[in-house]
Amino acid sequence: MIIPYLCLALLQEPTPAERQPEVNLSESVQPTSPKEMAEVLGIKKIQLATAPGLELWCDDSKIMRIVQKPLLAAWEFGEEQLGHSPLRKGATIRIVLLKDEKAVRNYYNLLVAECKRWKLPAPAPSWADSVIASGSAHMTFPPTAVQFLRVVGKNEILTRSVHDLGVVRMASACSYSGFGVPPFLKEGFAGMLMKTLKKPSAIVSHKNAALESTIQGYGVFAGIGAAMNDASNAASNWPSVIKTAVDKMWKQKTFDPMERVDSILQRTDAEFARSDYAFSWAVCSFLFDAHYPFGEAATLALEDKRWKSPIKPLPQSRRTAFLLVLQNLRDFRLARVDADARGKLLRDYLLEEYGEEPNHLHRSFLHWTRTRMPK
Rounded distance, CA 102 to CA 113, Å? Predict the structure, then answer.
C-alpha cells in the first residue's frame, strides 16, 4: 500500500490534475444499437436509453418504463454535483438490466472484451454465475453495473440501479483508474442519488454492514439478514437517524474521534457499520453543498445564532473546495492507490483545502445538519 505521505510527495511536482497519459485504445466492441445488442446477447429485444457518458440497457419493457426516467434524473443530478467532471477518454458508464439468464452469460463476453480493450484483467469465468445467483454485480472500471432481474426484488430494481450508478460514477470522479475508492465516497454519493427517488428501498452493500453502529450506538443489529430487511436503512429515514446522533453530539464537550467527520472519510470496508450509510449520505451532502461556507466564513456562521443560508450558491463553498479535492485524487499518478490510502489522502486534502482542524470540520457539519441538511 502506498502511504499517504509518499503520495503527497509524489504530487509535489506541479502538473494539471486532469492530465491523462496517452492510451492507445482499440475500438470498442460494445454494441451501440438495441438491434446489435439483442443479437450479441441472443435475445429478441432490448431497449436503450442514453445521456452523455451513460447507457442504460434493459430487456424488460415494463422495468424500463419504471427505471428510465428516475435513473436519468439521478444521473443529471449527480453530474451537476460533480461539476460534470470528465470520465476517462473513451469510457462510458453502462447500467445493464437483464431478465434472460442466457443474456447475462453472453454479456460476460462483452465485459471481457471491454477489459481487454483497456488492458485490464477480466472478471473470472464464474462472474456470470455470481450475477445469476446474487442478482447484481458492478465493476468500477470499465464502469459497469449488471442486474439479473429474476433475482432482484421488483421493488428494489430501481433503487439498486441508481445506487450502483452512484458507486461507479464516484469511482471515476475520485480515481483515474476507478480503483481504490473509499466506501464513504461510494456509499455517500450513491445515497445522494438514491435520495432523488420518491420511494427508495432499503439496501445494504457491505457484508459487514451489520456491525455495531459508530454513530452514538444507533442501529445495532445481530446479523446481516436483519440489517438487509430493516426499514431503518431506507434512505427516507436517514435524516432522522442523523438528527438523533447529532442531538447527542451537540451535548458533548469533546468529540469521539471515531464519530467525527474526518473518521468517516477514511473508514475501511471492514469498519463500515450499519449506520454509516446514513452518515456517509449526510457528510457527502455536506461536502457537496454549494451554499455552505468553509474556513473562517464557517467559523462566523457557527458563531452567528441568526445565520441564514444564502439564497444563491457561494463563489467559494464547501462544494467548490471539495471538487478540487476530487480533482487531485483523480491524478493518474494515484491510479494504483488503494481505498485505505485514498481515504487518508481524502482526509488530508480536505482539511488542507478547507483550512480546518478535525474538530472545526465536525462542528461545521453539526451546524449544517440543523441549517441545511436535506429532508
Answer: 18
List of residues 6+ apart from 234 with CB closer than 8 A: 200, 201, 202
Rounded CA separation 260/360 (Å):
10
Q: Are 265 and 236 in contact (CB under 8 A)?
A: no
Instruction: Establish whether the linkage from the previous residue to 183 is cis, with ω within 30° of 0.
Output: no
Does residue 236 contact residue 199 with C-beta atoms inside 8 Å? yes
Helix 127-134 to helix 101-117 angle (10° resolution) is: 130
What span, in angstroms and rounded, lies between the C-alpha atoms of 149 and 47? 15
Please report, for the chain, the start and end positions of each structural domain, with discontinuous segments joined by +: 33-174, 224-371
Using CA atoms, how far apart are residues 168 and 147, in angstroms rounded to an integer? 14
pLDDT at 280 over 90: yes
DSSP string, 186-245: HHHHHHHHHTTSSSPPP----TTTTSPPSSTT----SSHHHHHH-GGGSGGGHHHHHHHH
- Looking at the chain, the whole-number percentage of residues with pLDDT higher than 90 is 69
